[in-house]
């Protein structure tokens, strides 16, 4: 029984001196983050495929059971829309190979314009993917959430290849107007996604966006605490990613979420204690 928790990134300016020592070389920051959380969203791979050397450094800084959920490059999902992508996909898969089992799932985030009429394209793409990886799909077209037939169509395709459907729960964030600069910026950029609480596989993945105020973030995730506890009792191994508009305390909040689930499922093993963070000195 295992619950993995994480954030949208492994380094953030506000974490310096709190999550990791400061100053700290960029190539060592993941090691400190991995002592706080045991999963991370691979958002950077959406913008550029990393070199194998970079990925090797990620593997060296993390344990084999650390979970990377890596987003496929936008050239595959958004620009070519899953068609004629053999070469960029080959390059991407070769680059992430050093992660081994740490590459928990390859994340296929589709644009909001990807509609139920395009599901056949997704089905062909998924059937051609190597079975050496797990796959998870995130859709944003409202029809997948508002129309039962469209949801059933997508679920059928995903179930056919053992892929997961990643929900991005922004309901708590959009419940009340923004009150900070970070919230106002997120208000214009984040999708207004209905909450979906169905896991298709034995390893569900959830993305949750709270508020900058801790109490609002914690209040908003109570639904997920219960759902996650239920998944664990069923023998599943979920991953929860906690976001806030400023992400200033995201690692601490992710650990708090794990603690709240563990209070309901006592047999869940506690997260290890983070690495000590002490100021570096000249002596």
Our estimate of the beta-strand percent is 5-15%
Average of pLDDT:
95
Supply the number of helical segments.
11
Using the 3D structure, state the CATH architecture: Alpha-Beta Barrel
Oligomer: single chain
Which percent range fits the helix content?
25-40%
Number of strands: 9
Shape: globular
Structural class: alpha/beta
Biggest β-sheet, characterized? 9 strands, parallel
Tally the structural domains.
Answer: 1
Assigned CATH superfamily: Protein of unknown function UPF0759
CATH topology group: TIM Barrel
State the end-to-end distance: 44 Å
CATH class category name: Alpha Beta
Pfam families: DUF72
Description of the molecule:
The chain is 37% helix and 13% strand. By secondary structure, the protein is α/β, with parallel strands linked by helices. It has one domain (4-264): Protein of unknown function UPF0759 (TIM Barrel, Alpha-Beta Barrel), CATH 3.20.20. The chain has a 9-stranded parallel sheet. The radius of gyration is 19 Å and the shape is globular. The relative contact order is 0.16.
């Amino acid at each position: 029984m295992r619950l993995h928790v994480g954030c949208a990134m492994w380094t953030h300016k506000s974490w310096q001196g709190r999550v990791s020592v400061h100053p700290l070389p960029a190539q060592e920051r993941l090691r400190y983050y991995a002592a706080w959380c045991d999963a991370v969203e691979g958002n950077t791979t959406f913008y550029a495929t990393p070199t194998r050397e970079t990925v090797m450094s990620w593997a060296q800084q993390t344990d084999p059971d650390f979970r990377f959920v890596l987003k496929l490059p936008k050239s595959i999902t958004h620009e070519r829309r899953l068609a004629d992508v053999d070469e960029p996909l080959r390059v991407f898969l070769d680059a992430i190979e050093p992660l081994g089992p740490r590459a928990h799932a390859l994340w296929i985030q589709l644009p909001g314009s990807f509609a139920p009429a395009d599901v056949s394209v997704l089905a062909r793409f998924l059937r051609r993917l190597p079975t050496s990886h797990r796959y998870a799909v995130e859709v944003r077209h409202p029809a997948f959430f508002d129309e039962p037939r469209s949801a059933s169509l997508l679920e059928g395709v995903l179930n056919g290849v053992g892929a997961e459907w990643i929900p991005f729960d922004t309901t708590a964030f959009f419940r009340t107007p923004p009150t900070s600069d970070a919230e106002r910026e997120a208000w214009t950029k984040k999708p207004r996604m209905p909450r979906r609480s169905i896991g298709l596989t034995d390893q569900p993945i959830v993305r949750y966006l709270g508020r900058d105020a801790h109490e609002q973030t914690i209040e908003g995730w109570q639904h997920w605490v219960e759902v996650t506890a239920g998944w664990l009792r069923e023998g599943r191994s979920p991953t929860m990613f906690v976001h806030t508009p400023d992400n200033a305390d995201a690692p601490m909040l992710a650990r708090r979420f794990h603690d709240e689930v563990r209070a309901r499922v006592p047999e869940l093993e506690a997260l290890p204690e983070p690495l000590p963070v002490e100021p570096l000195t000249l002596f």
